[in-house]
Amino acid sequence: MLEAKLEQADILKKVVDAIKDLVQDCNFDCNDSGIALQAMDNSHVALVSMMLKAEAFSPYRCDRNIALGVNLTSLTKVLRAANSTDQLTLKAEDAPDSLSLTFENGQDRFSEYDLKLMDIDQEHLGIPDTDYAATITLPSNEFRRICVDLSAMSESVTIEANKDGVAASRFHTMRKMALCALLALDASGDSSDLMRWTTAVEALRALNLSTSSSFERLKTILSEQECK
Questions:
Q1: At the fourth CATH level, which superfamily is domain 2-116?
Q2: For the CA atoms of the chain, what is the radius of gyration?
Q3: Is the peptide bond before 59 cis (omega within 30 degrees of 0)?
Q4: Which of 59, 63, 72, 88 shows the shortest CA–CA distance to 28?
Q5: pLDDT tens sequence across 168-196
Q6: What HEC string does the chain produce?
Q7: Residues in contact with 35: Cβ distance below 8 Å, sequence separation at least 6, in sequence order
Q8: pTM of structure
Q9: CA 209 vs CA 161, 206, 212, 216, 222: distances in Å
């Protein structure tokens, strides 16, 4: 039997929220060490590996290894019913067909949900030890904010780290779009050409200021972390 209690339901909510856009269905592997998850997205580009150790729960009980096949969209809907400070208790039998989630605020509110489990045939991948050329540490909230800023500029970026530990980003998609936009402009050979090209250049200049601002922000944060 599995019984695990989190003092704050927000912990699991943040974990699920971080991976639900990458993975739709996955197994939560429960054992006496904690609750682990490993899954790949449908395109096999991103690998998610997560572990909530037994020490994060109080109490924590897992009598035998249990795999909980969960649809993360359904789990997200259930977790929305909990306040961030609610206590969350997870329960499942040794051969479960459902997962019980209980929310309580320790005073006058108590709610319980049963989530139907799935039979997911999922391969467990070994993650080899890797020697990385660079290691960069920065606050996760700041990195998330930077990624949101950059996503408005391009679907993909290249982040480079030099010997000083400062990352740089190059916006390949936006550069191609800018070049195509300039090549697509009509040229009639009269004064109207100047207006069209001036408008295009001003738009590209504004785009450059925006991307430069995001880069400088990332550069400053990483430089501050390097000095610590």
A1: DNA Polymerase III, subunit A, domain 2 (3.10.150.10)
A2: 24
A3: yes
A4: 72
A5: 455 555 555 565 666 666 666 666 666 66
A6: CEEEEECCCHHHHHHHHHHCCCCCEEEEEEECCEEEEEEECCCCCCEEEEEEEHHHCCCEEECCCEEEEEEHHHHHHHHCCCCCCCEEEEEECCCCCEEEEEEECCCCCEEEEEEECECCCCCCCCCCCCCCCCCCCCCHHHHHHHHHHHHCCCCCCEEEECCCCCEEEECHHHHHHHHHHHHCCCCCCCCHHHHHHHHHHHHHHHHHHHHHHHHHHHHHHHHHHHHC
A7: 4, 28, 29, 51, 52
A8: 0.65
A9: 22, 5, 5, 10, 20
pLDDT tens-place string over residues 48-101? 889 999 999 999 999 999 999 999 999 999 999 888 889 999 999 988 899 999
Contact 226, 162 (CB under 8 A): no
Q: How far apart are CA 97 and CA 66, in angstroms?
A: 11
Tokens of 100: 């019980």
Q: How far is CA 62 from CA 42, 79, 163, in A?
A: 30, 22, 47
Amino acid sitting at position 7 = E
Asked if residue 48 lies in contact with residue 54, where contact means CB atoms within 8 angstroms, the answer is: no
